[in-house]
Amino acid sequence: xxxxxxxxxxxxxxxxxxxxxxxxxxxxxxxxxxxxxxxxxxxxxxxxxxxxxxxxxxxxxxxxxxxxxxxxxxxxxxxxxxxxxxxxxxxxxxxxxxxxxxxxxxxxxxxxxxxxxxxxxxxxxxxxxxxxxxxxxxxxxxxxxxxxxxxxxxxxxxxxxxxxxxxxxxxxxxxxxxxxxxxxxxxxxxxxxxxxxxxxxxxxxxxxxxxxxxxxxxxxxxxxxxxxxxxxxxxxxxxxxxxxxxxxxxxxxxxxxxxxxxxxxxxxxxxxxxxxxxxxxxxxxxxxxxxxxxxxxxxxxxxxxxxxxxxxxxxxxxxxxxxxxxxxxxxxxxxxxxxxxxxxxxxxxxxxxxxxxxxxxxxxxxxxxxxxxxxxxxxxxxxxxxxxxxxxxxxxxxxxxxxxxxxxxxxxxxxxxxxxxxxxxxxxxxxxxxxxxxxxxxxxxxxxxxxxxxxxxxxxxxxx
Length: 464
Ligand code: NAD
Ligand code: UGA
What we know:
alpha/beta, six-stranded parallel beta sheet, 17 helices, 14 strands, binds nicotinamide-adenine-dinucleotide, binds uridine-5'-diphosphate-glucuronic acid, EC 1.1.1.22, oxidoreductase
């Protein structure tokens, strides 16, 4: 029986291994993590992540903190640890911090007594496999290692359906007979449920660079459409109409063209910064600048949103209550990493607003921690974060949209949760200060209906 051990029980490791365990009954699947709290949560009724469909997958891998035992026993080791942006030293603010990856690799070399296939599941800079290979082979005690790159393309909120039905699975390996044999072993795992024509194989460096490129292209689409929102607002064009008509060109496609307050999430910014750094290191400053702009437009989109709120509310929100509906970086997840809500709330707090936040999946503790934390500090293992962060006093968190909006001067919708479409906006309006402002950062509300109630509605990229 083949044994798979995944190091890192996070948003990727947990769901991916649950699906492999379900689809490959002949494989023993174990997920290990150094975070005792995370493993305990996976083994409880309160899973550490909210992901639709995860509860129903059925087959559960074993979740364990006994990292060394399971790595020792495994034939295939997936490494799915976090690869955050470096916060200090060479490349700070851009380069990937591979500390967690390197310590996992050193531990693998330490405990292994039999040949292993080591799979890069984390998103890493191109050429990481070469560094990992060095660590493993220079510390090997006669053990043979094959490194594969198998980047993950799932999106949070749709992780289970993405894993069940991926557009493609990519496996990169060394172009040696041993490397190609390892590629076939991993391919056989995915072939249990993924049609063969969707399993792509390539060389290692292409696979590593594909992942960074795919995220850069996706984020680029959002920044492209977001860059036009101010122009739409100034001219009377409607960004939804523009994006719809542009997307009807099959070469462009209608997907991923929703204008927003800005993209968030743990990967787009981190991976583009990583790409920028790699370009700089390879003497390509123009290419680095090109991709940096995707992030600049995104930062500008968030500050533009804050400026619009303040400017529309008579140039001050000092002492005013602003209700924030939605804090996670997108709907159907409780994940707040790099959510645009953090920057928007910090911007409003800087103008001395008092903020009342409601999100169906994010706890008060998490929100307070996010608002107290410095940029880039978030993606370090949860056990290293303070358990009781300082509280930002002008922020309150409720478990009800009606409570959050009671007595508010304005509402900011920052996540596109479906439930925000069906709220009783007449009731909300009746309980607000007048004039009642609504800033829709996700273009989810029925603008005409809300204007008929009496709201002053500002949408993204739409005429007033
Ligand atoms: P995560 O922070 O949710 O999980 C990573 C886990 O690794 C943490 O629980 C941490 O405690 C553990 N860990 C760190 N070092 C360890 C070690 N040495 N030994 C054992 N465990 C260790 O991260 P994630 O969102 O699952 O992302 C993991 C990787 O996958 C990142 O490189 C990310 O860029 C990539 N990725 C993420 C997504 C996504 O949607 N979140 C999608 C595709 C790819
Ligand atoms: C993204 C990619 O979609 C995945 O393919 C990739 O595997 C993953 O990053 C990763 O490497 O981590 P994710 O960040 O989970 O997935 O979520 P997305 O659906 O891509 O959304 C990212 C952000 O863009 C969200 O804040 C979302 O609201 C925003 N977005 C998305 C828009 O503003 N407009 C859109 O049209 C689409």
